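Q: Could you write out the predicted structure for this multi-component system? I'm mainly interested in how the pieces pack against one another.
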Amino acid sequence: MNFASDNWAGATPQVMAALVRANDGAAPAYGSDALTKRVTGLFAEVFETPVEIWFTATGTASNSLGLAALSRPGGVVFCAKDAHIQSDESGATEFQSGGMKLIDVTSPLGKVDAGTLAAALARHPDGGRSVPVALSLTNATEWGTVYSVAEVTELSRVARGRGLAVHMDGARFGNAVAALGVTPAEITWKAGVDFLSFGGTKNGCWAAEAIVCFKPGLFADMEQRRQRAGHTFSKARFVAAQFEAYLSDGNWLRWAGTANARAEQLRAGLRGNGAARLAWENAANEVFAVLPKAAIARVRDAGGSLYEWPAEGTGVSLGAGEEVVRLVTSWTTGEAEVARFLELVR
Amino acid sequence: MNFASDNWAGATPQVMAALVRANDGAAPAYGSDALTKRVTGLFAEVFETPVEIWFTATGTASNSLGLAALSRPGGVVFCAKDAHIQSDESGATEFQSGGMKLIDVTSPLGKVDAGTLAAALARHPDGGRSVPVALSLTNATEWGTVYSVAEVTELSRVARGRGLAVHMDGARFGNAVAALGVTPAEITWKAGVDFLSFGGTKNGCWAAEAIVCFKPGLFADMEQRRQRAGHTFSKARFVAAQFEAYLSDGNWLRWAGTANARAEQLRAGLRGNGAARLAWENAANEVFAVLPKAAIARVRDAGGSLYEWPAEGTGVSLGAGEEVVRLVTSWTTGEAEVARFLELVR
Amino acid sequence: MNFASDNWAGATPQVMAALVRANDGAAPAYGSDALTKRVTGLFAEVFETPVEIWFTATGTASNSLGLAALSRPGGVVFCAKDAHIQSDESGATEFQSGGMKLIDVTSPLGKVDAGTLAAALARHPDGGRSVPVALSLTNATEWGTVYSVAEVTELSRVARGRGLAVHMDGARFGNAVAALGVTPAEITWKAGVDFLSFGGTKNGCWAAEAIVCFKPGLFADMEQRRQRAGHTFSKARFVAAQFEAYLSDGNWLRWAGTANARAEQLRAGLRGNGAARLAWENAANEVFAVLPKAAIARVRDAGGSLYEWPAEGTGVSLGAGEEVVRLVTSWTTGEAEVARFLELVR
Amino acid sequence: MNFASDNWAGATPQVMAALVRANDGAAPAYGSDALTKRVTGLFAEVFETPVEIWFTATGTASNSLGLAALSRPGGVVFCAKDAHIQSDESGATEFQSGGMKLIDVTSPLGKVDAGTLAAALARHPDGGRSVPVALSLTNATEWGTVYSVAEVTELSRVARGRGLAVHMDGARFGNAVAALGVTPAEITWKAGVDFLSFGGTKNGCWAAEAIVCFKPGLFADMEQRRQRAGHTFSKARFVAAQFEAYLSDGNWLRWAGTANARAEQLRAGLRGNGAARLAWENAANEVFAVLPKAAIARVRDAGGSLYEWPAEGTGVSLGAGEEVVRLVTSWTTGEAEVARFLELVR
């Protein structure tokens, strides 16, 4: 009953097998090996367009190195208040970029909306001391909600109208794509996204993260930027191997689909539940629920894991003895596990 | 006949097996899992003292995050001219530290010596605009030479006399320890080293690097520093697994010993060679040789790999048609491979 | 009729005379001259406590260098949304500090209040990825309001309870002290302030800014930090001379008092005005008024200067054809000038 | 007998008078005043080409902000070992640029030469981990020597051949131009210099420093860069006023010429001196001499000031009881003062 995080799960058998295969013999270092080249081609296939990719150790590295590559003095990145780059990365983007500022343009449910963004841009006119540089959208968001193609398109239109680049933090990109039922291309570059932090780690890999750039040439000097940040793996093929398994045979969307289905099973069970309830509706593999403390205790006593979530700022009203909790599913989550949880919180 | 680099080799069977074992079931993220804790204990055993450790993605990250944690305005780090931090990291230490300066205090054979260091320190008196902060020694060095316990002790004495911290870049620490025949403790904290970039990647792992701090408390805020640099692996157990295999049963020193033995086989063969010769004598798993270009071509035609090395600044005089080359051995290098190479360059 | 800004005014005759006096003969550079030493003593007298001071070129430099000296990875500074450090300095604090984050804890009227701050601190527990480092208060604020001794004391109590340093941005410190009728000591260190950006430029100097530190030793390496930021004037005595005139004979408070009195004259005239009105009440030398556009045009046609102020976020409701404007008075503002303005907007 | 530094001297009467004139009335802040605009025109006249200029507080700020504007990850700036940016600025360029590295390409007499530079560039090929970005030349140098037009032209040719920008640190630019007898244009943009740190402070101003850019558009975002570094003076006219006096009527070259003439008087006296001698020949307003310690003591006893200079690395052989000293002249240095000094050291 691990609902603490999808990063508590291990790697899929396919990823492990690919690692074993990739271990055979010597190969050039720093990404000049054949496997890494093959994987670059796989990314282009999946996104139906030529892309530039750079592996990094973590999603935080992808987010901050990509945004930093666009840095300007006085630079501002717009994002949601609960965006990982704003709340969970110890100022990685500020640091890597030499001091850009992140400005909160949240609307309900952890998403930026176009009106809020337009108003914020109006407060930062061209030539001022603050220089709008980029819009960052997390998809799926930290609230488990997803941006639709229409929403991303509209946000990109507003952002690009002022010359901003559009970044998508895709730590759970597979879950978003699987939930939306669109192609990876439709929800990214076709909708105006310039670059993507593509995460495989949470969805069945060990450590497989990449910056995917849809505008070849946008990131001058990224090799040196990555090197000075300590993100140039010498044995890059161990990351490439993970991505090869990930992107082959639709594996990544199937694994994400499994996680999403278990989340939907959770949501369904909580909707019709007397004692517990959904904190808000969403679509990907994170579920936010209001539970009585006693129910939380029962889950933990049974060896289950989950995180409590601060209710403040969510708009959720809690009754006496209630808490908001976050439940995350992964490719390892089983139907029985979910059923057991639902029984415990009934 | 891979002599290009030890980072062209894959992971050892023991490391692969440990990864497979570690993949079983869910585990808390970000290093709070049981395996990571166990590995911390292993490090303490190997170094015979309590240590603090932080995993990072690369040696560059270990070097730069450790040195940056000691940063001061006007700060200066002393190192050899060919130190990896000076020549191969795209300014990682300057960047992570917010602008510290690296000052070259090389002496022959890629090593810092105490006299050169003392003279440099004298040129940077206390209270001046430049603030001496740390001494960084690579062991084994980029020239394949090693610092003895006596040398490290003397250098540390000079450095500490002015309040400097002492860093050891141990990208090839296993090779140094195996070559020196000392204990890990003797060549580090017992000789005055405050922290070590401990590298497993080049010596049989995939990506296993750690900052090892012998002065608990020296690195305040390292967790946040690592996080903002994007080096906090969520599934930390996959690094821990590699180190578990690495540090168990003396594996790391055996693997390093194999690489060193193959290097010695190379050196012995080149010493008694008419057409080729050693560029200089050294002790670890890198060999620098002077070869006729024709011999280099024969090696490459036979599928062998090696790197040419700039002769300028090495003090080596080249005859017509000669080049300096670097030959690196690893745990995978076989005796027959070496013999074949020696035959080709004869 | 300059109401655009107090930094449109020149230097007072006393400041000019001091500059001329200081120009006589040679004097050691970089602040080791006798005049700079004497001025340090003047600061100690004015604040009734030993202080450390460092001259800088601008208030932005004072703010950002002081806060940066306290920087930690993941560091967070709490301030008001309209704080100069947040809105008008092109990310100076983020930059100088290597990436600290500024978090908005505004309450009404451009001031931080203790409850808002306490709630924000609760969201950033010890040991988390964000590390609360400092509280920054502007006094007088960007809204022309002032923090009382009681308010600063309570805010400092909350901040220090979590180990935060307390900074006061005193770009208009003279106006605040004159408005409050307290001693400089009472509104700073006696109320829990650790360091102050002390501004003389807006209040009768040319360029006279200093970091004033009430906790000797708090700012290790400030000399080198200032040097690398390019803020170590070689001919420091020309800054010292300005401060000598400024701090002597109560000049600074008299000049600030004049500016405040003219602002009060403006406020009084606007309170009893049919066509115009105060946007909000305040106390120092900035007045915010709601004016019909036609009145603004009349002022400008008569050669007057003032700035329009975005109404959004101020809580002020505008009628048709109305704007919020900011009116700033200085030591040069005359009674007749104010009277003329009031006539024009009637 | 102040030979300690030209920055121990005050401002010229013309500069003081200009400050007094500029103090009359209100003027727009941040450089949008009429005087600042007029001064921009003066710079264009003096350099016979359109220029962009930005005032800063110090030469360190000019150097570091200009170079930082060209920063790239892995970036390298080539300069002489004793360049002020390398030895006296507490890492300002490294800091402002987010970690660029300064590489020493000195040749004799404190000057870079083209061969040394070319060799260094060859060691940093395109696409490598280090990225050559700029060449920085100090003119007059820290050794009191000057680069001729031919030397600057040749150095620029080599630098531009690899895409480097060429920077001139002109802390003593007036002294160089006066010594060379060339036009400001000839020794800068006509010789391949892209931007200049133009210093007035040492040569008769209080604090008058500017970045002068000969390639309009080279420095995108310099306004914001300057603001975030705290170098945007609000009352910019006080800097403009100094430059107005400085650049009018050939004042700056006359003042520099006076200082140079006094230095030549020193050199002449030392050439024919039995007890003392020149450490090396040079041309601007710094003189380096070898003096017996007893002579140094006599000068100091008579109230004179000078600095001892480390002989190490200069190639000067000292006899017993000898020291190298630096003697700096300024617009205030009188003939009698020099004569008195020469008498004392005879």
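A: Regarding packing and overall arrangement: Residues 11-251 of chain D form a domain with the Aspartate Aminotransferase; domain 2 fold (CATH 3.40.640.10).
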